[in-house]
Structures are given as structure tokens and as C-alpha cells.
Design brief:
Shape: globular
Number of domains: 1
CATH topology: TIM Barrel
CATH architecture: Alpha-Beta Barrel
CATH superfamily: Metal-dependent hydrolases
CATH class: Alpha Beta
Strand order of the largest sheet: 1-2-3-6-7-8-9-10
Helix content: 25-40%
């Protein structure tokens, strides 16, 4: 069994073949969590989870880049985001037994402009803390996004979320930074970046991190691993992340698949069988 703990089949990139993509993953013994980034994508994630009796779950939340209006240039996409605030009443109405986490939420300083930097950071932190409180209230794990803001993120988590369950999604920093999060009891999630990272930093993270605190993800439709690089990513491709982890740790791929699946079920309180 495999677990894609962070995917976006709820995004427009899959509007024409969502069910086919999900069925393909399930047929390959891959479970998945569709992660919301705004109210609408969160609702789509919840609706998709409801269609499948097993193996498909949802996370609901507000991504930091959607806390103010801006143009976004991402791999395979270019769009203008609208400003949104975290509406606790709205998100509470989405909670079902298939909702296993809040997120993705966090901090993203990558696109900050000097003319609105302080305001943007404040909006992000307000939304992040609101979602932390929401996760604590509803006893849900936290799916955390971070880009160019690891120090500030760790400070907020230590202050507002110490000892609570969380995963640092799409981790891309050093082992020194990873250790700070692991020391707080959090999980580290790795995706296709691991398969084409030339810096060696993520390989060091994989070598050094406790095996029971590593998760696999795709972040589909983005970050497609070889041999599908250049095409749309999808949950079934999470196996290439597991294969790379096995290669780095010198383990059998089946062992990595089993352990990371168990790690995901533990963090998200999912009863597998």
C-alpha cells in the first residue's frame, strides 16, 4: 500500500478526468488526501472523498497565497488569486468523517512585494493561527505549507501548536531545519522534488530523519517525478517517491511503502482495515 498524503485532484487540472485519476490510484493500492487551498477547492475535496467508501480523504483549509489578491505563476499554471479570509463557520460546515486535516495552511514569503510586505505577512499569520485554532478545536491534524519562511513558521507553531499533530508538506530545506520540526514531534513530507533534487539536501533529510516520521506525497498536478517529468502529476506517481526513499535509505521499496502508509494512517487517525 502507498499513501499520497497531499494531492490536488480537486483542482481544475483534473476537471475532465478526476474519477479516472482516483480510480487509477486506488487500483494501484494508493490512498490519497485531496488538500484544499480555498473554500471552493476544499469543498470539492470533501465531495470527492464522499464518493469513495475507502482510500480517499480530504483536508480543508486556506493556503497563505490566497490571503490577498495577486498573480501566481506556478508549474503548469498561471492565474490570479482572489483574497479570502478563513471563515470558521463555512469550514466547520464541511467537516465529515472523511475530513482528516486542516490545510494546507502556513506561511509563504516567496512572492512578497516590498510595498505590501508587512500587511501580507500579517494576513498570512492571522489565517494560519485561525486554522491552528480550528484544528485544535476539531481534533484534526494540520497540513502545513512553508516557502521561504521556516523560522517564522516554527515560531508560530511553537507558540500556538506545540505538541499537536502536523506535517510539514513539501519540505525542501536542510536537515538542520528538518530536525527542528521533527524535535517538535511533526512529520516531514517528501514529493517529486526528492527525485530530481541536485543539491543533496533532501537526500540528507531522508537519511537522517526517523523512518516513522516520513510521509510520501505528490502535490499533483505539480512536481512530477521522472519518468513522467513534464507531464501532469497524479497520485499514482507517488510510488516514485517511495522508490527514491528506499534507494537513499538502502531499504526495500515494499518496506518503505508499508512504513510510510502506516505513518500516514497514524498522523491522520485513519483506520486502514
Amino acid at each position: 500500500m502507498l499513501f499520497d498524503t497531499h494531492t490536488h485532484v480537486n483542482f481544475a487540472a483534473f476537471k475532465d478526468d478526476r474519477d479516472e485519476v482516483i480510480k487509477r490510484a486506488l487500483a494501484e493500492n494508493t490512498w490519497l488526501i485531496n488538500v484544499g487551498t480555498q473554500a471552493d477547492t476544499s469543498k470539492t475535496a470533501v465531495d470527492l472523498a464522499a464518493k469513495y467508501p475507502e482510500g480517499v480523504y480530504a483536508a480543508i483549509g486556506l493556503h497563505p497565497v490566497h490571503t490577498w489578491q495577486q498573480m501566481l505563476d506556478e508549474e503548469e499554471s498561471h492565474f490570479k488569486t482572489r483574497e479570502e479570509h478563513f471563515d470558521t463557520t463555512l469550514y466547520q460546515s464541511m467537516i465529515t468523517d472523511k475530513v482528516v486535516a486542516v490545510g494546507e495552511c502556513g506561511l509563504d514569503y516567496f512572492r512578497l512585494r516590498e510595498d505590501n510586505k508587512e500587511k501580507a505577512i500579517e494576513l498570512q499569520k492571522q489565517a494560519f493561527v485561525a486554522q491552528i485554532n480550528f484544528a485544535k478545536k476539531h481534533k484534526l491534524s494540520l497540513v502545513v505549507h512553508c516557502r521561504d519562511a521556516y523560522d517564522d513558521l516554527l515560531e508560530v507553531l511553537k507558540s500556538e501548536y506545540a505538541g499537536m499533530p502536523a506535517v510539514i508538506h513539501s519540505f525542501t530545506d536542510t536537515w538542520e531545519t528538518a530536525k527542528k520540526f521533527l524535535d517538535q514531534g511533526y512529520y516531514i513530507a517528501l514529493n517529486g522534488i526528492l527525485t530530481f533534487d541536485k543539491s543533496g539536501r533532501l537526500a540528507e533529510v531522508v537519511k537522517s530523519a526517523p523512518f516513522d516520521r516520513i510521509l510520501t506525497e505528490t502535490d499533483a498536478p505539480y512536481l512530477t517525478p521522472p519518468p513522467h517529468r513534464g507531464k501532469r502529476n497524479e497520485p499514482a506517481y507517488v510510488r516514485y517517491v517511495a522508490i527514491k526513499i528506499a534507494e537513499i535509505k538502502g531499504l526495500d521499496t515494499e518496506e518503505v511503502m508499508k512504513q510510510t502508509f502506516e505513518n500516514a494512517c497514524r498522523l491522520f487517525n485513519i483506520k486502514a482495515f
